[in-house]
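Weekly modeling sync, notes
Attendees: S.R. (lead), two postdocs, one rotation student

Agenda item 3: backlog of single-chain predictions. S.R. asked that every request posted to the team notebook include the full sequence so nobody has to chase files. The rotation student volunteered to paste the first one in as an example of the format we agreed on. Action items at the bottom.

Example entry:
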Amino acid sequence: MLTRDERIRAVTAGLSPGIGDVLLAATTKRLVAVARGGWAISVFYPQIASVVTGGWLGLTVTINTAGTVLCFRAPGHSGREFADAVRIGTPIVSGGLAAV
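Predicted structure, as returned to the notebook:
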């Protein structure tokens, strides 16, 4: 799934409502997520509008893109590192950062 000049920054596993267990990777170019049954999503960083984290038991990560919301729960430390890796890849837009 990776292109020749693409590298992985962070990987985490999580649980997404309606999808189940997901494996997520933040690469140097995009966010990639896969799950059983052939479900997959690939989102380039310029398409990401925000990355929101929160929660007490585990961490909920919500990634908003143009037309898609990906929400999953991950182990706290792993989820936080993953969210930070996605934020690093998300470009700055006029008026502030695209990811909060």
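Discussion: group reviewed the output briefly. The two ends are 27 Å apart (CA to CA).
Action items: rotation student to repeat for the remaining queue; S.R. to check formatting next week.
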